[in-house]
Amino acid sequence: MNQNQQVIDEHLLLQYLNGNADEALRASVGAWLDADSGNRELLDRLESLWIETGRILPAPVAVDVEAAWMKMSARMNVVDGIQAPEVANEKNPIMPAESKTIRMHYTRYLFRAAAMILLLVGLYGLYWQFLRPVDQVVLTSGGEALSDTLPDGTEITLNCDSKLVYPEKFDRKKRTVILTGEAFFIVKHNAAQPFIVDAGLAGIRVLGTSFRVKTRSTDPQQGGANSPGWGDPARVAEVSVTEGSVMLFAVDEKSGDTASVILGAGETGILEAGSGRPIQIGNADSDNLFWANRSLDFRGTPISTVIKILQQYYPVTITVSDPAILECRLTASFADDTIDGILAVIAGSFGLGLEVKGQNYQLKGNGCINQDN
Prior knowledge:
By secondary structure, the protein is α+β, with helices and mostly antiparallel strands.
């Protein structure tokens, strides 16, 4: 960003875009835009972001009934002038004054009625577009995960004790849902209609991708989002991206400033209470989607960690014959696999043997034959 782009505060630009600027502010913004071509690009980006986050709303359309009637009356007089000429001829004699008055009154009533009908139709359209309450759908999961499909075709899975609120029909410019708890989204792509997750203090904007969102409520009475499993009590939102990319953002309630971070596939971002600035913290946890689709995604994960995760989700005991095996690093993905299948892949990846006795498994060998440590 160059120096010119820092002249005007974002609050003033927001007033300008909302139509609340006085003459002095409009002049200042105009001069700022003329000073550098990059300022126009910055304003366009801010306007798009603020529209999508709800900070710029459509201004109500004022209906001036008197002006509409005066305009219609002017048209009526022209018509009367044509139909009742002042100069007579053989084919069209001068209309008597009484008849002309009756005709003008009748025509005036017709146009007045037409004008009122047009105004009523316009007001009705405004009501349905801007003022009519939008019916909301509340989707709540109980003790088990719940899967559903949104009106736009987006697939969602809610974790236990979570809630999703969305409109029966999405807005034409954006698709906004409100999440409390944890959910996995596979978003239906639509470049003209971004998908936005309102996660309390944080927001997530995507076009078409799959990702997981977990939120912690700042209100203890809301429940759900305060479920066990959070390692850091200060964390209020966490996003892990499976495919594509998303923007994790937060709007400061006092200053109105917006901070964001772009996350790609395999990356995780968080927002902590009081920080107001989302950050990327590295790769997603290997098991963060096991609750949704029983998938595991290991990326250079030590076997010691792999064993802990497997024993957490499967009723088995896993040991190794040589501690050196624990240092091997596994890169592999599994989706709804059995424990036998997973351990067979691990053994084959490192040239290890696998001994099975009931629910007890042992990886046997001298370390990682097929991997440099």
